[in-house]
Amino acid sequence: MMKPSELDQIDRQLLDLLQEDARQSLERLAAEVSLSATAVQRRIKRMRESGIILRDVVEVHPGAVGLPMTFVITVELEHERADQVDNFRRKVANEPLVQQCYYVTGDSDFVLIVLAQNMDDFEAMTRRLFYDDANIRRFRTAVVMGKPLRSLAVPANYVPEAASVAAPEFVNGS
Fold it and tell me: For 99, phi and psi rounded to 5 degrees?
């Protein structure tokens, strides 16, 4: 398993380039980082095998598939026992309209990013996830207006301002 400290500047540059467009040819990537295509291929393979690159995905415009509405939902559980948190996580993972789910600290227990076709579609989803669950204390919804910034890109070349900040150990799948 690779540690963050084992990523050199070229690895980080490749990660940024791949996050912009994972379909770039090895030759184009090689030209960008001044290496051979074979060397780039080896680096990418190593980062996939070590779990740094989790998967290659296609980003789909939600409106193009009939899901133009985006919602941000905060959820408070009645009881925050491990089994109940796990049950909620499983239920959310099985809901196709949920794009992202975060277990968080603060006033809420979870933050969800959800898509829907329209308000009726959204209301049906809230019934499935929240109203039929006795462990949901409350949920609050914000409707996203305008074009949101949508990205799961990780800034691979980010350097904290305080050079003394140590990077945490990398755990596969985190």
Answer: -85, -40
Alpha-carbon gap, residue 107 to 124, rounded angstroms: 25
The pair of structure tokens assigned to 54 is: 């989790």
pTM over 0.85: no
CB 132, CB 100: distance < 8 Å: no
Sign of CA dihedral 26, 32, 38, 43: negative
Report the distance separating Cα 13 and Cα 158, nearest Å: 11
Secondary structure letter of residue 169 according to DSSP = P
First to last CA, the chain: 13
- 21-73 pLDDT, tens per residue? 999 999 999 999 999 999 999 999 999 999 999 999 888 999 999 999 999 99
- Other residues' Cβ atoms within 10 Å of the Cβ of residue 112: 22
Of 110, 104, 150, nearest to 129 (Cα)?
110
Determine the Cα–Cα distance for residues 26 and 48; give it in Å rounded to an integer.
15
DSSP 146: S
Nearest residue to 6 (alpha-carbon basis) of 51, 59, 73: 51
